[in-house]
Amino acid sequence: MRIETLLQIIMIIIALTIILDKDNLRLVIFSSAFSLIAASLYYMNKSPDVALAEAAIGSAIIPLIFIIAIEKQKQFIVVNHLNDEFLDRDTGKGYKVLEEFAKHYGLKLSVYKNDDGQIQGAFRERNIDLIVEKSPQDNRKYLFIGKKASILMNKLEQMTKDIEDIKIIKVEESERYD
C-alpha cells in the first residue's frame, strides 16, 4: 500500500471522528492533524506552496483561534434584575437551578447585579447569556430571558419545565450597526 493511500484513509477516519466527536478541544486537535496530513499530501503531489500554507494556517493559526474562542466560552453570564433572594448564592432557588445547569455543561456561573438597567437587551456588548427579572404580569414568576439562537437556552428550558415559578423567554438577537 502506498503512503498516499494510507494517509487518505487516515484522513477519512479523522474526518469521521471530527463529525462524531462532541469534545471541542479534541475537535481542534483532530482538525489540526487533518490539516497536517493534507499538507503532507499536497507536498507529495508536488505543491509545496499550498502545503506550506495549509500547514501554517490549518495546523497552527486556525486551531489557536478556536482554542481562544473555546476558552472564552467557559463562563455562563447572568444579569440579575431582581431585588429578592431568588439568585442569592446561598439560599436562592434560581441560583441552585442555574448552578446545576452550569455544572452540567462545565461552565462557571457568573451572576451580576444590575441596578441601573443599562445592560438589558445588550446581549452582544457583554456576552450576556441570560437576564433574570420578575414577570410584570405575575409577581410570583421569574423570567429567564436569553437568546433564541442559543443551544444552551433549549437545555435550560428543558431543565426548568417542571418549575412553576420560572418561565423561559427566548428573544431574537437584533442586528446592530456599530
Automatic annotation (TrEMBL):
Q: Which InterPro entries match?
A: MrpA_C/MbhD
Which superkingdom does the taxonomy of this entry point to?
Bacteria
Its localization reads: Cell membrane
The MrpA C-terminal/MbhD domain, residue ranges? 9-74
Q: Which terms are listed as keywords in the entry?
A: Cell membrane, Membrane, Transmembrane, Transmembrane helix
Which topology term describes how it sits in the membrane?
Multi-pass membrane protein
Keyword Translocase in the entry? The reply is no
Where does the chain cross the membrane?
6-20, 27-44, 50-70
The protein's predominant localisation is membrane
Q: Which GO terms describe its cellular component?
A: plasma membrane
Give the protein name, as stated in the record: MrpA C-terminal/MbhD domain-containing protein
Tell me which species this is from.
Thermohalobacter berrensis
